């Protein structure tokens, strides 16, 4: 019986140490890698100075889409997926994905440029053309 | 006509519920007289669900667009192969496919020798749980997720299948995952049943081949998804920590933890409750994966819609967890043998399981963070890929280090082949130094990659020093899987941080340099097939002034799809793979090109193939059970 108890204590102490180390790691991660996940209307409701590094979800508007000749960048208006009247102007330099087009749902990462309320996207991703897409398109 | 498959499913639902009720009654009375009836009912259910499934396949075959599901996921021009595999292209169909696999697994299990080893009461309880899960599927398929809805009048042509999904990788990825998910149903139900009845045979042993097969399929499914993303999506990466990728990773992590505690718990000797809990948790996490993907709770790159299965799934997961808690708390008490010390093989296995569970918790937490953070902030906070890398990579590196050392530690503590281990430590250190000299200096990369290589060395040394290992098939299986893991370690540790990417805009005849490669853009080629128009940029690749080959990344415009499709081209190498993406081009044939180098990336796929093939060597036969006890406590080595 004594042996059982002592081995249990060792395991318990080891587990506590392990969790402590892991907890530190986790806290650092949560603190430094946490960013806002916002849709357009939520982003518009926030004070602009808070929009520095966020992930923004929305739909590409029909008008206002300007490609640069080599498709190495694009400017467009991003509208709220539920409320098309809420819009943010976006500029992006880099690879424009195949599925990018008016009406496409996109995910951006970046923040406002300081002087104007233009969202400077560092990454631009279109939602994956999943096998369940047909349902979304028709519905 | 469509009444037949629907009513087959309805009949299967009623019969499953009835049989479950009979089992409950029998269990209450402590009898098993009706067991043969229940087993026959299962066979009938299997036949009914099979009829429905074949009906759906047939409808795709004959292009019966009066079925809503068929008209949504196929059209007149879709080739036969993709028409048949469109079975699992949508939500209702993939639910039917999963359900069908579950039903078939249960029926196969019924005919195995291992099933007949179980005591009558354990069988009764097994069917209670299994029929419960089965009824849930039938309930979904006859209600929220009916794949046999009709449209009237029937359209002349269907809406067609997304061309990006017309790819072998995307065709095998979902069914592979579903086989994994379905396979875990048997061990989970067995675990609960045997815990209640105090079955004299170990459920871990009886379920071993099911657990192993499900685990291998789940692993294969996840990695095939990564391979497809790397080659077809043109992101240049294989893993993005997207919620949908995470969803399938979480049950894999918990099942991996289970595989390790199961070794300790074999024959019900220790960690009894832990094993039951981990197994059931794995099944629940499979449902959770579907919940994440289908309920729309998390916004993800993948545009899955809310298919109305969110609430039933959530309710069912809660139900399983409550039942499991009741079984474990109020079930009969078991005497667990005490574990040996932390430094023994047992101890290291337990630590390994802790780490896998911890990684699982991190991934789950990260995925749900936007939902969780709403508790204290108005605007949801999420975590970027950096979070997962920062938190999980150190944990994986510890797993790698354990994997190098663990096979050299004896079951109850102490080192075997001490000199061998000393040599191994030397090799490991030397590998680390070699990597350092070669410019691999990030701490995680150098430790991870050297651990991967040291694992390979460790396994080779072990097989040289221990002849008994070479004679046991299951040992080849278990260590083979770890060899595959070792190669994946190497691939991930190097290809992740040391990928180099260069973008350039080139006119014909111009060159760019990436590392020691020079890429010269020769010309643009264009040709058309009935299905598409292809624009390919011919690139000449030179290394140190020597021309070593050509690459031709393409952009394709499909006739039936209005958006262009990027087709990457790679120069296969076991060392540094060159990866070319054509981002765009102008009328004057000026291209914008992204070149990247992917060092050692192919070792990931090689490792995966080894895991999938060699893993099956660990399947156990009843005959060999007595002596084929691989990592089990072995008196000779303990």
Per-chain topology:
The complex is a heterodimer of chains A (139) and B (638).
Chain A: H1 2-32, E1 34-39, H2 40-45, E2 54-60, E3 66-67, E4 73-79, E5 87-93, E6 105-112, E7 118-126, H3 133-138
Parallel strand pairs in A: 1-2, 5-7
Antiparallel strand pairs in A: 2-4, 2-6, 3-4, 4-5, 6-7
Chain B: H1 3-29, H2 35-61, H3 68-73, H4 80-85, H5 91-110, H6 113-117, H7 120-142, H8 168-183, H9 185-197, H10 203-233, H11 243-265, H12 272-294, H13 310-330, H14 345-372, E1 381-383, H15 385-405, H16 418-437, H17 443-465, H18 467-471, H19 473-495, E2 500-506, E3 511-514, E4 517-528, E5 532-543, E6 546-551, E7 554-558, E8 564-567, E9 569-571, E10 576-585, E11 591-599, H20 602-614
Antiparallel strand pairs in B: 2-11, 3-4, 4-5, 5-6, 5-7, 7-8, 9-10, 10-11
Helix pairs in contact in B: 1-2, 1-7, 2-5, 5-7, 5-8, 7-9, 8-10, 9-10, 9-12, 10-11, 10-20, 11-12, 11-14, 12-13, 14-15, 15-17, 16-17, 17-19, 19-20
Describe the structure.
The complex is a heterodimer of chains A (139) and B (638). Chain A is of the alpha+beta class. Chain A has helices at residues 2-32, 40-45, 133-138, and strands at 34-39, 54-60, 66-67, 73-79, 87-93, 105-112, 118-126. Helix content of chain A is 31%, strand content 33%. Chain A has a 5-stranded mixed β-barrel. The relative contact order of chain A is 0.14. Chain B starts with a helix and ends in a 24-residue tail after the last helix. Chain B folds into 4 domains: 1-161; 167-332; 361-497 and 603-625, no CATH class; 500-599. Chain B is α+β, with helices and mostly antiparallel strands. At the A-B interface, helix 1, strand 1, strand 6 and helix 3 of A face helix 14, strand 1, helix 15, strand 8 and strand 10 of B. Strand 1 (34-39) of chain A pairs antiparallel with strand 1 of chain B.
